[in-house]
Write a structure and sequence with these properties.
Blueprint (H helix, E strand, L loop, with lengths): L1 H21 L8 H13 L1 H15 L3 H24 L10 H25 L4 H30 L4 H27 L5 H24 L2 H12 L1
Helix pairs in contact: 1-5, 1-6, 2-5, 3-4, 4-7, 5-6, 6-7, 6-8
EC number: 3.4.-.-
Family: Belongs to the protease PrsW family.
Membrane topology: Multi-pass membrane protein
Length: about 230
């Protein structure tokens, strides 16, 4: 029973990680690096929990403060911190889509441990885990897409555009994450018709960024030339 619950809690994060990894059409990242960032996402859960507890004591836990500062603010800033300091200047970050791969890896590592903790600390059914796979785990993946897309643009920009896109790498996922959390706190849980369109909107915008990042890969033209020659 414990193993089945653990597998159900871990599977959504790994499945989504595989999905975004395989979306890299032209120059796949080393799997070891992707898994390293996934584990890094797991490891930042503890400092996030400590910071969130301290901020809750200091600021209180009103829905808006919790959503945009304590939850989204802490989590997205920690994700950005590790991505910027570990990946941004790494030699493997050599095309815009790489930002999405590594950011979703960190986000899904974080979401997976959250899901495991929830599965073992809360009364859980298969239906509950399915809903969590469709909402918070999927949400974290898409917040990672928004962060990674902007990191990719910053990596291959110049001048003031670098700072602008780095700022967007924090701001965009923080806003979407905050809106999601606020909706979960203030909208009755029976109103799934509100959550589902919101997630569809996130997926629509996320996939557009995936396609845009792939479209500007410098390896796209190299692959096309190889196909023509062959």
């Amino acid at each position: 029973m414990l193993l089945s619950v653990l597998a159900a809690a871990i599977a959504p994060g790994l499945a989504l990680l595989a999905y975004f990894y395989w979306k890299d059409r032209y120059d796949s990242e080393p799997l070891s690096m992707v898994l390293r960032m996934f584990v890094t996402g797991v490891l930042i859960v503890l400092p996030a929990m400590v910071l969130q507890r301290g901020l809750t004591i200091w600021l209180g836990d009103s829905p808006f403060t919790f959503s945009f500062v304590i939850s989204a603010g802490v989590e997205e800033l920690l994700k950005f911190f590790v991505l910027y300091h570990i990946i941004f200047n790494h030699t493997e970050f050599d095309e815009p889509y790489d930002g999405i791969v590594y950011a979703t890896a960190v986000s899904l590592g974080f979401a997976t441990l959250e899901n495991v903790l929830y599965a073992f600390l809360q009364p859980t059914t298969f239906g509950t885990l399915l809903v969590r796979a469709l909402l918070p785990v999927s949400g974290h993946a898409l917040f990672g897409v928004f962060m990674g897309y902007s990191l990719g643009r910053a990596k291959f920009s110049k001048g003031k555009q670098v700072r602008f896109h780095l700022g967007m790498a924090v701001l965009l996922p923080l806003i979407w994450h905050g809106v999601y959390d606020l909706m979960m706190l203030t909208v009755p849980s029976s109103w799934m018709w509100v959550a589902v369109p919101f997630m569809l909107l996130l997926w629509f915008r996320g996939i557009r960024r995936v396609n845009r990042a792939n479209a500007v890969s410098p390896f796209r033209w190299l692959k096309r030339e190889e196909e023509i020659k062959s």
